[in-house]
Amino acid sequence: MNAVAPKGLVIAAPRSGSGKTLVTLGLLAALRRRGQVVAPAKTGPDYIDPAFLGQAAGREAVNLDPWAMRPQQLRALAAQQATGADLLLVEGVMGLFDASANGQGSTADLAEALGLPVIFVVDADRQSQSVAPLVSGFARWRPGVRIAGLVLNRVASARHERMLTTALKATGIPLLGAIPRRAELVVPERHLGLVLPGDLAGFDTFLELAAETIGDFIDLEALQSLAAPIPQAELPTSLPPLGQHIAIAQDAAFAFLYSHLLDGWRAQGAALSFFSPLANEAPSPDADAVFLPGGYPELHGAKLASAHSFHAGLRAARDRDALIYGECGGLMVLGEALIDKTGASYAMSGLLPTVTRIDRPKRVLGYRRLLHESALPWPAGLNGHEFHYSSAKQSGLPPLFEALDAEAIRQPPMGAQLGRVMGSYAHVIASA
């Protein structure tokens, strides 16, 4: 007898700020309360939302990026994530059809690639009957994308709800619930987006309130009945591991890690060990590769500057010819100095002649096609993403990557490499 194929749903909206994260978090927590196992996923390259989703679900979230990943990888990762779960719940990004500059990578692209129905979250604030043509337009826009159910957010009153409900009957799409307007259900933001769960005082209380609200105002049985089977696919080979033993920085300053990369490295036989630079820990002396991922080092300048064992461990890794690779925040820490938003300068490891600063913030954001000739054991062509407010200045070193943006427009060369020490602002996601 064949096992029942896992099922999934995509949570999407007309635009950012509609309540996707609130609804997804609340659903994860509410269903978990009922004893169900729900596997969380996030559309796109976001690092922050998956941390919230994972905490709400009690299991790690995975990124599903329809711009950077091929359809087979998307289907395989979704199926793998849903294994052993009652439901895969995928939070979308921005509006349903919003994508990169070349029109690819939207939540709709992911829903279509996975064949999953969409639960559409609409912010009803300051509108009534106009909600119906808005929903109807989205529902008819793309035949391969099916909006299977609706959730209204920020409903002002019972009368407001009746007006919305009456208007939506014409769409023929089931209304699963209406969430009242509550100021306490807003997650605060920080300079790179949302705060991390560990930085948000009272997050557990917030999650409890979200679970209660979703449980009270959404028909959970009806919602789950709309889920569709997740297609099965064989997982393609991940990017090769950076080494046979990879020491990976992981703490509040180095929090941006893609789980699919780590899982892929383990599957290829690499041993992974973790260390905390903020706790003044050094990478394992047995590691033949050190990975410094992105995060928020600019918020911890003084502590990182005084982490002498950490810096000594990096120098020792360099001296034994280990590969040392930094992404974004990792690049910042590989440099000579970091200047924070107040203008204070903190000495970093000095492995690259780079100075980064965030006292003159300028946002850089977008997907990148990357080409490299370096010691990285990866294909020459890679897909990645760049999102930062800091800037880096260095001279005399070859760049790590040549880069194109999503529209294939050439970008300035990225990063630097000095022997087997290298880094850039790009977060690498998959092979091109």
TrEMBL record:
SUPFAM superfamilies found in the cross-reference section = Class I glutamine amidotransferase-like, P-loop containing nucleoside triphosphate hydrolases
Q: Which InterPro entries match?
A: CbiA/CobB_synth (IPR004484), Class_I_gatase-like (IPR029062), CobQ/CobB/MinD/ParA_Nub-bd_dom (IPR002586), GATase_3 (IPR011698), P-loop_NTPase (IPR027417)
The CobB/CobQ-like glutamine amidotransferase domain extends over: 246-430
Q: Which UniProt keywords apply?
A: ATP-binding, Cobalamin biosynthesis, Glutamine amidotransferase, Ligase, Magnesium, Nucleotide-binding
Q: Which Pfam families match?
A: CbiA (PF01656), GATase_3 (PF07685)
UniProt keyword annotation of ATP-binding present: yes
Q: Where in the sequence is the active site?
A: C328
Q: What is its EC number?
A: 6.3.5.9
- Site features described as Increases nucleophilicity of active site Cys, chain residue numbers: H427
User: Which reaction does this chain catalyze?
Assistant: hydrogenobyrinate + 2 L-glutamine + 2 ATP + 2 H2O = hydrogenobyrinate a,c-diamide + 2 L-glutamate + 2 ADP + 2 phosphate + 2 H(+)
Q: Which CDD domains match?
A: CobB_N
Which coenzyme or cofactor does it need? Mg(2+)
CobQ/CobB/MinD/ParA nucleotide binding domain location is 9-191
Q: What remark about domains does the record contain?
A: Comprises of two domains. The C-terminal domain contains the binding site for glutamine and catalyzes the hydrolysis of this substrate to glutamate and ammonia. The N-terminal domain is anticipated to bind ATP and hydrogenobyrinate and catalyzes the ultimate synthesis of the diamide product. The ammonia produced via the glutaminase domain is probably translocated to the adjacent domain via a molecular tunnel, where it reacts with an activated intermediate.
What is the protein named? Hydrogenobyrinate a,c-diamide synthase
Gene source species: Devosia rhizoryzae
Gene name, per UniProt, is cobB
